[in-house]
Structures are given as C-alpha cells and as structure tokens.
Amino acid sequence: MNLPRRKSNRLKNYDYSQNGAYFITLCTHNKKILFTPVGDDSISSRDSISSCNSMSSRNSISPHDSISFQNTLSFSNSMSSRDSRPSYRSLSTQMINSIFLKTIAHYPHVTCPKYVIMPNHFHAILVIERKDMESHRSMELLADMGLRADMESAPTVSGVVQAFKRYSTIEYIKMVKQGILPSFDKHIWQRSFHDHIIRNEQAYQKIWEYIDTNPLKWELDCFYTPDYK
C-alpha cells in the first residue's frame, strides 16, 4: 500500500546545524491537554535573557538556572477540598520542564534564551553557536538519561527536538507505569514540529515577546481548546 507522503516542515536545502536562532513549536498528539492549563498552576514563560533583550546580549540556560518547581508552580491552586495532591498536569509539566533543561544542557553549542510550556504545546527559541563548525564530530552520551543523542556530528534543530521528544516520552511512560500520570493514546507529541528561522533582531524581539505573553493570551491561541478533562 502506498502511503501519502508527509509534508516536511523543514526548509529545503537549509543547513539546520549552522549558527543561528530558530523559533520552534511542538504540539501534543491530537492537541490533547497534557500539561497544566494556564491560569491554574502553570509554568509561566521562562527566560534567562538579559535586560537588553537582544540577540547580542542573550544569556544561555545552564543547569543551575533550572526552575525551582516549589517556587514556580503554585501547588495550592491545584488542590481541592477533597484532594490535597498536585494535579497530574502539574507533575507532567514539571517533568517536561526538567527533561527540556537536561536536553539543552547536553548540547554545548545550543542555548535557549526563551521558552514556555503551554497546556497542549511548547514554544522555544533555540540558538546554535559554534566557534568551530568542524571540531565537534560526535555528541557525548546523555549519561543521566541513559541514551545517546541521535546525531553523528553537529547538533541540529531537528536532533535537539527529537531528543527532547524521545526522552520526555520515555519519562512520561515511566510515570504512567508508576500510576502518577494517566495513560495516553499512542503518542505524547505530534510527529512533526514547526520551526521558523529568526533572521534579524526585529524578528527575534517579536518572537521573544510572543512567547513571553503566550500564557496571558491562551484563550486567543490558535491551539486553544477548552477541554481540560
């Protein structure tokens, strides 16, 4: 049987491993709400950029910049009179955040100056900066995850995204087996992802602000769904 060819979201003949900034969007499978709804106890848009908010002065996320879940997540908002435990979406959001930071930390030439976890999608700016384009022909083992980055040479946007999707899915499955999270339908993430090459400072600022205000505009978002069940 001949299956229809899936249209690629990648730009033809563009080298996604070259230095530059990229705006990426990942959606959950079938746009299902898996993470904490905005306005409940959501993780707000996250940034480690300097006050200048410019590409030339951005700072990268490092492991010690990780979000403190106790401070960032308002667990009290997810507590009901019947159940004082945090909602499963709070826990899945914590996990997604942790896996993303770990993934970025293992790519020395990739930084993320801005990202946000939304109820059914994820936005981030990925920046690839390599001083020597030819000096890194292999990636180290992702030791604490027990898996290897899925690329042979320089990190690519697709490689970073696929690693993040894979490791977060593995962790999600573990949490399902432990009875922490509910079961899901075949996949956590949509197969493909969207990306946009950020070509100049003006475009960078516009995208940075979009990510920053995304939680406040959730009900106007193209991915919005009122189905929180």
Write a brief caption for the model.
By secondary structure, the protein is of the alpha+beta class.
What does the model show?
24% of the residues lie in helices and 15% in strands. The longest helix is centred in the last third of the chain and has 21 residues. With 229 residues, the chain is an alpha+beta fold. 33% of the residues are buried. It has one domain: Alpha-Beta Plaits. The strands form two sheets. Strands 2-3-4-1-7 form a five-stranded antiparallel beta sheet, with helices on both faces. It has a two-stranded antiparallel ribbon with strand order 5-6. Strand 3 and strand 4 form a beta hairpin. The protein is built from four helices and seven strands.
Descriptive key words:
globular; 24% helix; five-stranded antiparallel beta sheet; 229 residues; Alpha-Beta Plaits; alpha+beta; two-stranded antiparallel ribbon
Derived structural class: alpha+beta
Pick out the low-confidence regions: 3-7, 48-85, 133-153
> CATH topology, anyone?
Alpha-Beta Plaits
Put simply, the count of helices is: 4
The description of the largest β-sheet is: 5 strands, antiparallel
Q: Based on CA inertia axes, which overall geometry fits?
A: globular
User: What would you report as the Rg, rounded to the nearest angstrom?
Assistant: 18 Å
The CATH class turns out to be Alpha Beta
Strand line-up in the sheet with most strands: 2-3-4-1-7
Query: Could you state the CATH homologous superfamily?
Result: Transposase IS200-like
